Amino acid sequence: MRTSGTLRLPVVAGLELRVHDPVLEVDAAGWPTVRAAAALRGAAADDLVIPQVSAVRSAGTWSLGGVVTAPDGTAVQLHGHVSGDARSLTLEDAAGGTLALGHAPGSAAVRVDAEDFAVARGGPTLATLLGPHGVELDAARISGAMEVTLGAATRVHAEDFVVDGVVVVDPRISAKPVRLGAVSIDGDATLEGGRAEFQLIVGHGEARIAVGGHAAADAVTVDLDLAPMPCDALLGAMPGGTADALVGMRLSGEIAASAHLAVSRAELERARAGIEDASVGELTLDFPFLERCRTLADPANVDLAALRGPYRHRFADDDGRVRERVLAPGAPQFVPLGRVPKIASAFIALEDMRYWYHDGFDREQIERAFWHNVVSGRVRRGASTISQQTARNLWLGVDRSFARKLQEAYLTTRLETAVSKTRILELYVNLVELGPGIYGVDAAAQFYFGKPASDLDVLQAVHLASMAPAPRTYADKWKHGQVDRAWLDELRGHARRMHRNRMIRDADLRAALHGDLGLVDRSR
Asked: Which end of the chain is less packed: N or C, by CB atoms within 10 Å?
């Protein structure tokens, strides 16, 4: 018996099996067989196409069989059984990996058991559910067990569920594709009445992180705890593409870490409305890297000893050409720190007021920047110290991704222990970008004012320091040699603050308040 049309069968919430043009056959013993094409459809996923499927009933049990064809043409075998007390469906990929779903009638739970199953071969539905935009699953495989209970409360329980071979492509995380090894997940998550709670253990390499917390309409709380592990193993647990500047580094010691974040949604809205006394939440971080980890070998491209002498700095310019500068007295466009005290003071005042007192990180500014970005809903403020910026300029380039920030943090600790604060500041003022192809304050002084950096007054020094956050934008804005009144007032305000902090003399302040900036007209 042949029929035409589509039969719609609900599978679980959000997923529906659509059977097209089924054919019914009955053998001499009276047992039926149904053959059809089918598609699994979900609101959040594309179709999973099943070009052929058969269902045979015998002795009270329906047996399912068929073939699922992946977009690349690879066939995945489908097997299943439906009886009065159990339902199961198994997919088997070409390499023998399996994905099995089991459900008992009357139960709200669906069990998923996987063994080295290729995610991409499961078809677009599975790939879309497991991999949002920016995640590549071509080589990803899953193993382990998971149980999903549907009802008034949705509960997910994972037992050594492992996803291996995922690649994340997101420039905010890393400029290079991030290649994850085996990521294990154990624990429970519950969603009920708009409130989510989770207690999970997430592992990658030798690292194991306990992730707990809840999210509701009024607040979000997250706690992270890194189990004690060797420092060198923590480095090895970093995914591929996130530690390329640290190749060759070796560490000794053992480390554990923790973090706590709590955000009040009501206070967050108050802060966004401009109410200054709003306390958005709590943030605590305990990551005793400096206290617990000792460096046995620096990365292959980091020569800290050379920084104490005539260091040869290599970097790529805007055209991708590798350039070299010698950072030492007597070298072209290098200026010793002692010859530019006003410029040094200006950069400290505008970029890192606590420079002489911190260990490379201004934790107070980091926390302020974090909450400012939370309130803003996007990253608008950084908290990099002069030490961090110097480490980035020496070894990392212009990449501002999260992975680079992690590497920058380690390299900053090494820089602070290897050379003096004075030398770090000297390296900074000779490396800082202050316009297109303009590196260092001496080159900038010649470009913008037509004279050496040692001849700049306080107002001109503050102008250069004020350009550091967006040098190319400001270089184009003031190319005619004229600045607007608001910019000039801002520069003079910085000069007053420097005077209050005893960074400049009375005569320097008077010159800044009444003098002319003296920019060169570069428009011609």
From this structure: C
Q: What is the C-alpha separation between 165 and 167, in angstroms, rounded?
A: 6
What is residue 420's three-state secondary structure?
coil
Residue 117 · residue 100 · CB < 8 Å: no
Question: Is 309 part of a structural domain of the chain?
Answer: yes
- Distances, alpha carbon 93 to alpha carbons 22, 79, 99, 114, 509, in Å: 25, 12, 9, 11, 75
CB 23 within 8 A of CB 1: yes
The residues, ordered by sequence, that sit 6+ positions from 456 with a Cβ below 8 Å of its Cβ are 340, 342, 343, 445, 449, 464
Letter string b/e over residues 181-210, b meaning 16 or more CB atoms within 10 A of that residue's CB:
bebbbbbebbeeeeeebbebbebbbebbbb
Q: For the domain that residue 349 is a member of, what is the CATH number?
A: 1.10.3810.10
The total number of structural domains in the chain stands at: 1
In a domain, 357, yes or no: yes
Residues 142 and 121 sit within 8 Å (Cβ to Cβ): no
Answer whether residue 391 is part of any domain: yes
Q: Is 313 helix (H, G, I), strand (E, B) or coil?
A: strand
| Of the candidates 224, 133, 215, the residue with the CA atom closest to the CA atom of residue 172 | 133
Please provide the size of the chain in residues: 524
Buried b (16+ CB within 10 A) or exposed e, 410-419: bbbbbbbebb
Instruction: Tell whether pTM > 0.90.
Output: no
- Whole-angstrom CA distances from 300 to 5, 246, 415, 440 are 66, 7, 15, 26
Q: What is the C-alpha R_g of the chain?
A: 31
Q: In tens digits, what is the pLDDT along the chain, a chain of 524 residues?
A: 666 777 776 665 566 777 777 777 777 666 666 666 676 665 544 455 666 666 666 666 666 666 766 555 666 666 766 666 677 778 777 788 888 888 877 778 888 999 998 887 554 445 454 555 578 888 899 999 999 998 888 999 999 999 999 999 888 888 889 999 999 999 999 999 889 999 999 999 999 999 999 999 899 999 999 999 999 999 999 999 999 999 999 999 999 999 999 999 888 888 888 776 667 889 999 999 889 999 999 999 999 999 999 999 988 877 778 888 999 999 999 999 999 999 999 999 999 999 999 999 988 888 888 888 888 877 777 789 999 999 999 998 877 788 999 999 999 999 999 999 999 999 999 999 999 989 999 999 999 999 999 999 999 999 999 999 999 999 999 999 999 999 999 999 999 999 999 999 999 999 999 989 999 998 87
- Is 377 inside a domain boundary? yes
Query: Which residue range forms the structural domain that includes residue 459?
Result: 302-514
Q: Is 489 left (phi over 0), alpha (psi -120 to 50) or beta?
A: alpha
User: Which string of DSSP letters, residue by residue, matches 263-304?
Assistant: EEHHHHHHHHTT-TT---EEEEEE--HHHH-EEEE--TT--T
